[in-house]
Amino acid sequence: MSRAGQASDDAVDRPTFAPRCLCLDLEVGIDDDRIHRFGAVRADTNAQLTHKSGSLAAALESLDRLAEGAAFLLGHNIVAFDLPHLAAASPGLKLLELPVVDTLRLNPLAFPRNPYHHLVKHYQDGQLKRVQVNDPLLDVGLTLELFRDQSESLAETHRTHPDLVCAWHWLTTREAGSAGTNSFFTKVRGAVRPTDGEAHAAIERLLAGHACMTHGEAAMANAEALGWAFAYALAWLSVAGGNSVMPPWVRHQFPEAGALVKRLREVACADAGCAWCRERHDAS
Ligand SMILES: [Zn+2]
C-alpha cells in the first residue's frame, strides 16, 4: 500500500470538477475471487490510495479513512462488482453506508447514441477501455473523466429535453440504495425528485407520437419493478431512427429494457383511441 502522489492525476485535478466523492476501482482475481489490487481517489482533495501488495485488511482500513467526509462513492460497475467484493472482504466498512453513483449505469442515459463514449467498450460488459492493464489508479482516473463527461452531457440533455431527464430521475431512484443517483439527478436538474404526477406527465409527452400509449400506461403502473429498464427504453426511444443499439450489458442486466421497447413500438394494443397502434398496426 502506498500513497501515490504523482501518477495519473490529469483527470482529477481540474478545478472546475471536484465532486465530494471517493472514486474507486478494484482488481479481483479470476481464480480466487479475491481483491488483489485497488485504487481510490478523493475527487475533491485529490488524495489517492493504491493497494498492490501486503495486508488487504490494513489497506481497506486506510480506504475507509479516505472515504470519511465523502458525499458518495463513485465507480464503473460499482453496484454489481466493487461493492459486493468490498462487503465480502470487510462487511464492517463504514464506506459501504455511503450513497453510490455508478458510471456504467449512467452511460446509456448520458450517451444513448452509438458509440456511447470513447472510454467505454461497446461490447460485452461495458468495461472501461484500459490504456494499461493492472493499474487501478488509472481506471479511477478514467472513471472520473467519464463521470465529468456524463454530468455535462446530462446537463445538456436537461436543457434540451427536460422531460427525458425528469423521467430518468424518477425511474432510476425507485429502488433501495438509490440516494446517490437521486442526489446526482437533483444536481443535474436543479430540482428534487419529481412527483409521480410530474413524472407520468413527462413520460406521456415523451411517448406521444413515438410509442403505444396503452403499453406506456401499463409500464408506468409497473415502474417500481421496471426502474432502470424503463429509463433505458426511453433513452433508446429518444434516439430511435438514429444509429443507436442497446448495449449488450443492458440487454443482459436489464432484459426488460429491450422487451419494453418491443412492446411500446411493435405490439398492437386493442384501444381504438391509440393513435400509434391504429396508425402503425392497422394499415392495410
Ligand atoms: Zn397502442
Question: Would you kindly provide a written description of the structure presented here, covering whatever features stand out?
Answer:
The protein is an alpha/beta fold. It folds into 2 domains: 21-157, Ribonuclease H-like superfamily/Ribonuclease H (Nucleotidyltransferase, domain 5); 161-281, no CATH class. 49% of the residues lie in helices and 10% in strands. It contains 13 helices and 5 strands. It has helices spanning 56-67, 78-89, 103-110, 136-160, 162-171, 179-189, 196-207, 213-221, 223-226, 228-238, 248-253, 255-266, 275-281; strands spanning 21-28, 35-42, 48-51, 72-75, 100-102. A 5-stranded mixed β-sheet has the order 3-2-1-4-5, with helices on both faces. Strand 2 and strand 3 form a beta hairpin. Helix 10 (228-238) packs across helix 12 (255-266). It is elongated, with a radius of gyration of 20 Å. Residues 1-14 have low confidence and may be disordered.
Task: State the gist of this model.
The chain has 13 helices and 5 strands. The protein has helices spanning 56-67, 78-89, 103-110, 136-160, 162-171, 179-189, 196-207, 213-221, 223-226, 228-238, 248-253, 255-266, 275-281; strands spanning 21-28, 35-42, 48-51, 72-75, 100-102. It has a 5-stranded mixed β-sheet with strand order 3-2-1-4-5, sandwiched between helices.
Task: Sketch the topology as an H/E string, one letter per element.
Answer: EEEHEHEHHHHHHHHHHH
Alpha carbon gap, first and last residue: 70 Å
What percentage of amino acids are in beta strands? 5-15%
Which cofactor or ligand species appear?
A: zinc ion
